[in-house]
Amino acid sequence: MHDKRLKAREWDKNAKLNVLIFLCLNKARLVPRAVTHIEKMSKKIGQYRVEGTTNKCFVTISGSSKKWKVNLKNFECQCREWQLTGLSCVHVVSVLIPLRHPWIEYCSEYHTVAKYVVTYNLPIHAIDDPSE
Questions:
Q1: Cross-referenced InterPro entries, in alphabetical order (predicted)?
Q2: 8-37: per-residue pLDDT in tens?
Q3: Would residue 13 count as lying in a domain?
Q4: Residue 89 lies in a domain
Q5: How many domains does the chain contain in total?
Q6: Strand, coil or helix: what is 101?
Q7: Is 123 within a domain?
Q8: Per the domain annotation, does 72 fall within a domain?
Q9: What domain range includes position 72?
Q10: In the chain, what are the helix, strand and coil shares in percent, each to the nearest 5?
């Protein structure tokens, strides 16, 4: 029994290490705020159990038995945080970590460095003082 616990701890450490390595490799592609958000969400995944219903549809179940449907194909979560922010919520992260899908594919393109650069590439002109 003790050996199983040690193996489980080792697997957990390896999974967390893989997530951190992946985030570091993709930091150049996501803005720092998005990376920080995903890191925070990945710390909370132990609170959820994931059940797959189809290839891209899952149900995450919390310790208090609340359920949220996650549809990776349509980029939808029942909590609506994913749709509103464009960043993965804890339910989506709970699904993505075991599947080892690339994070960048499940974040809105507006959270990438490339889009950020395009947004602020044009000059911003000062507005004249209306009191003059």
A1: Znf_PMZ, Znf_SWIM
A2: 666 555 555 455 555 545 445 888 888 888
A3: yes
A4: yes
A5: 1
A6: coil
A7: no
A8: yes
A9: 2-114
A10: 50, 15, 35
